[in-house]
Amino acid sequence: MNKQSFSFYNLRTGEKDRDIQLLFPGWREGDERVAIFSPHDDDGILGPGYLVQALPLFGADVHIVIVCNGSGGYSQIEQKHIITSLRVRETARAYQAIGIDEEHIHRLEYDDYSVWPYIGWKLASGGEGTFRKVVPLLRRLKITRVLIPNGHKEHLDHTATFLVGAFDVPQVGDPVMADWGETEPIRSLLQYAVWSDFSPDDALLRGDDPAMRADLAVRAPWEAEENVRRAMEEYRTQAKIVSGLMSQRDERKIGDSALEIYLSYDPRPRCDFKKYVDRVHSIDS
Q1: What are the chain's domains?
Q2: Are 100 and 52 in contact, with CB atoms under 8 Å apart?
Q3: CB–CB of 173/186 below 8 Å?
Q4: Which end of the chain is more exposed for a tag (fewer CB within 10 A), N or C?
């Protein structure tokens, strides 16, 4: 695969380009470090797997941040107490299949189905939450772009990870917690879908058809999909769990290529007061 084997689409404006700037405005080839927030080990493959393979071709360093440790993912009783160690080994082999080495995999080690209570910094229990792990990590890695999972109707851990991305990630570039590393603003965020469509609310706010919820897409050569399937074969402990998801992936096929969808996301939308000022002027007059 090479750069020219990937195409990028803005589904809202109808634009198509082979330049990745259509997804990441202001892209700086050779100076981009992208963090993929993966709620569970395999979500970073199932959701943005094509883009993960494309990013290095466009001069980016890719890091996978796995939030959960896989403790709830055992399908056989005898795996209950060893599932997390099995998942670590499976994950290393799986991401290798799509070009990511083990040194670029970072684990936050929260139990499955349990991320939600850890959102924030200081917890009621006296411990520290996601904020204390995420901000120093992204600063140390000098991350420039972040992909976060769809927060709409997928899984409680997906929604929690989405919220971590929405609230912890922007703080990476804020002049706070000066002892946690040098600050540099995150240039952009994208949402990716693992199996559920995005919220219709975003499309309605844009004035778009809520049936077409994503606004960006990646068209990748079928080889990228084959690499994803090869990667997922490494998750032998998850075979029963993901079998249905894998069979649905045929829907992505478009000619001799495959499609992946994204939703642009601004975690800090600016309030434009002009419309309110204009409205008050109209009422006063």
Answers
A1: 3-284 (3.40.50.10320)
A2: yes
A3: yes
A4: C
pTM for this model (two decimals):
0.95
Closest CA to 231 of 105, 84, 95: 95
Maximum distance among all Cα pairs of the chain, rounded to whole angstroms: 75
Strands 216-221 and 7-10: antiparallel
User: Tell me, what amino acid is at 68?
Assistant: C
Residues whose CB is less than 8 angstroms from the CB of residue 198 and which lie 6 or more positions away in sequence, other chains included: 150, 152, 191, 213, 214, 263
Q: Which DSSP letter does residue 70 get?
A: -
pLDDT (0 to 100) of residue 152:
95
Q: Are strands 60-68 and 32-38 parallel, antiparallel or unpaired?
A: parallel
List phi, psi (to 5°) of 254: -140, 100
Summarised one tens digit per residue, pLDDT across range 45-86 is 999 999 999 999 999 999 999 999 999 988 889 889 999 999
pLDDT band at 131; cut points 50, 70, 90? very high
Instruction: Please state, in angstroms and as integers, the Cα–Cα distance from residue 118 to each residue in 105, 114, 137, following that order.
Output: 21, 8, 16
Residue 55 CA to residue 234 CA, distance in Å, equals: 22
Tokens at residue 1, please? 């695969």
pLDDT in tens, 195-223: 999 999 888 877 888 888 999 999 999 99
